[in-house]
Amino acid sequence: MAGRIPREFIDDLLARIDIVDLIDSLVPLKKSGSNFMARCPFHTEKTPSFSVNRNKQFFHCFGCGVSGNAIGFLMDFNHLDFVEAVEDLAAFLGVDVPREQASLPRVQNNKANVEESYELLSQVAAFYYGQFRNNPEAQKAIEYLKSRGVGGEVAKDFLLGYAPDQWHILEAQFNRAALLRAGLLVKTDKGKIYDRFRGRVMFPIRDRRGRVVGFGGRVLDDSLPKYLNSPETPVFQKSREVYGLYESLEKNAKPRRMLVVEGYMDVIALQQYGIGHVVAVLGTAISTAHLDLLFRFTSELVFCFDGDSAGRQAAWRSVEAVLSCMRDGRQARIMLLPQGEDPDSLIRSKGVAEFVRMQDQAQSLSDYFFENLSQDQDMLTLEGRAGLVKKAAGYLQKLPNGVFQGMMMDKLKKIAQVSDLDVFEKPTNLKYTNKSRLPEKQKQNSPARTAISLLLQNPELEKVVEQQGVDWEGLDSPGVNLFREIVHRISQSSRPSLASLVEGFRGLAEEKYIKQLGFQVTLVPEEGVESEFSDAMQRMVRQARENMLEILIAKEKSQGLDQHEKQLFLNMLAKK
């Protein structure tokens, strides 16, 4: 990669692409009114709910809630990262991807080093694998693998190998500087350099494109550490890679579910018995990056852990991590094994059919979540139920907006025996409330939501904002702030569109709201859009001004206003 892709090119790409043509080349679409429809490629359904709009250059599924622009579709459909999706989109249009040229010599040098590391790691993996045939010392590694039931075919599939118990064998075969960059050599503070892996069974770690990015090594005696992983390098980040993903996808590119286990040997042992949808994290807690990667390929994850105390702790950490990834259409389950068992021993003793049955009956995320939080609470008392509500607060806030979040809230209300909860009244606390919450339709039609939705879908309305010359001083509210940010982005863009605006918010906290409002049906006739937008904006401003007046009045009564606040108060009164 020779530099960052310019934002102007991405905006131009989105302006030139026809999302209908792109998606139709992958998922056949049928015209339905002003939209194009299909069965959603991201979840199973019998009737089409996947909608593509040519004017908005946007897709949305009314079944599972997934939505986005052309780049987002390619990322989800082809399991690509952002840069790969941009490159594929450019290829679809037959254009080259430009790169920013700042610090070009250094960037080119880094690119060369990265490519060299991939090549070197592949060669070292082949070297370690070759030790099984060429080095009598490797016999103990072969015996270990046989004792774990690992046959030659699986060893070949996973490129298993052996690192000789020598301090400088790699330097005799490969370039020292390249080995250091790839993390295969250790350099001490005193300048001593030696092989990182010695006398270990080697597990090459491959990314989803099949490139070796690092290694794990297991000792064959009682020395510590039992397992040793490659350090972080430009091509290997433990928080973003999972072991066995490439091998799993080679057997089934879109598995119904994936089993997440704790170690290399668990993956290999299960593969040996035909359980191909299994991966492991690399000696670190599972991260949202791991989860987002896995959810690209499947809609269900089963977390499999030993039934001891450490396993239960790991299971709860996985629950904490997966909550923020649980958008509608995704599932997660917890599979705790019997005490003293691991996946390898269990499948040997119980057989494949029983192991699969246990997967099928693994506890749902919601059941495990509430069972775990309730276990130290006396749910027959008010105090116990209040304790559950308090403990659940921070976790439920992590859930993305959607059906699953609403159902989790309903389940908490049922367990706690309360009629209403306001999860978002305070950022770190759940509170009981007697206020009736606004129905969803009314919330969607609030002035701020209406104004933002119309502006996203009709960026040319930015001229109306400029013409009206609104005084924004003191109007500090989430809706107004987001509205003004969108106006600013439109004014700075040469080719503003809904697709480019959505892209500009990728990865930001506001992204999900932008997507929701970008596809919101406004039911406003084309000739009335400008009038409706102007009215919604004026009502939004008036509402924000009234809210600020209430805040200033309350502060005046409690502690008084400073000179600036007094002037702001007078100005707002004059405009009321």
What does this protein look like?
- This protein is α+β, with helices and mostly antiparallel strands.
- It folds into five domains: 7-93, Zinc finger, CHC2-typedomain (DNA Primase, Chain A, Alpha-Beta Complex), CATH 3.90.580.10; 110-236, DNA primase, catalytic core, N-terminal domain (DNA primase DNAg catalytic core, N-terminal domain), CATH 3.90.980.10; 240-357, Dna Topoisomerase Vi A Subunit, Chain: A, domain 2, CATH 3.40.1360; 376-437, no CATH class; 441-575, Orthogonal Bundle (DNAb Helicase, Chain A).
- Helices cover 48% and strands 13% of the residues.
- The strands form five sheets. Strands 1-2-3-4-5 form a five-stranded antiparallel β-sheet.
- Helix 13 (343-350) packs across helix 14 and helix 16 (382-396) runs antiparallel to helix 17.
- The radius of gyration is 28 Å and the shape is globular.
- Mean pLDDT is 86; it is low at 103-109 and 423-444.
The fourth-level CATH homologous superfamily of the largest domain is DNAb Helicase, Chain A
Shape: globular
Spatial sequence of strands, sheet with the most strands: 1-2-3-4-5
Number of strands: 18
The major sheet is characterized as: 5 strands, antiparallel
Percent in helix: 40-55%
Number of domains: 5
Distance between the termini: 56 Å
- Mind telling me which CATH architecture of the largest domain this is? Orthogonal Bundle
The unreliable regions are: 103-109, 423-444
Backbone structural class: alpha+beta
Cα Rg: 28 Å
Q: CATH class of the largest domain, please?
A: Mainly Alpha
